[in-house]
Amino acid sequence: MTQEFVVLVDEQNNILGTLPKGEVHRASTPLHRAFSSFIFRASDKQVLLQQRSGRKKTWPLMWSNSCCGHPGLGESNLDAARRRLKYELGLDPTLLEEVAPYRYCFTKDGMMENETCPILVGIVEHEPVINPDEVEAVRWMEWKAFLEELERNPKQYSEWCIEEARILEKTPRCTELIGLSNVGRIPH
Description:
Elements: E1 5-9, E2 15-20, H1 21-24, E3 32-33, E4 35-41, E5 47-52, E6 63-64, E7 67-69, H2 77-89, E8 95-100, E9 103-108, E10 111-116, E11 119-124, E12 135-141, H3 143-152, H4 159-169, H5 172-178
Parallel strand pairs: 3-10, 4-11
Antiparallel strand pairs: 1-2, 4-7, 5-6, 5-12, 8-11, 9-10
């Protein structure tokens, strides 16, 4: 894959410029655009979880949502998500929609994530084929079991994944798309 650039923004999401991805994620990461996706299997509505590759600079070997990434300059969140889903997991969703806004900043092991990061929900009809440079492992889970797992073992998951799951629980459009109503609660 060619060198990836991230789009730097202010708190109002106005573009300030771009930087190579490798120069952005560090101890004091500038605010930049990203996206986060939760992908569900069409046949049983289980959510796909990803264990981040041990080669990742940020949050290596942590479990997280299906796929995260950064839109390029002039690239929509949906186009960026489709690009990353194909690259990381060999997936081409039959449905993909942006369902909620999200903004976060977390630090772990001297690395910072600082992103404006809309949450996307998608549906696939086939199994993932992982790219080992990006993904260590994957697993499918029922939504309720996933929420219970987040409650029991929060340190195994990225902080953004936990917060995004809380947001999705309260997002009517997610319920409409996937049917995730009244399936569990995670602590706040």
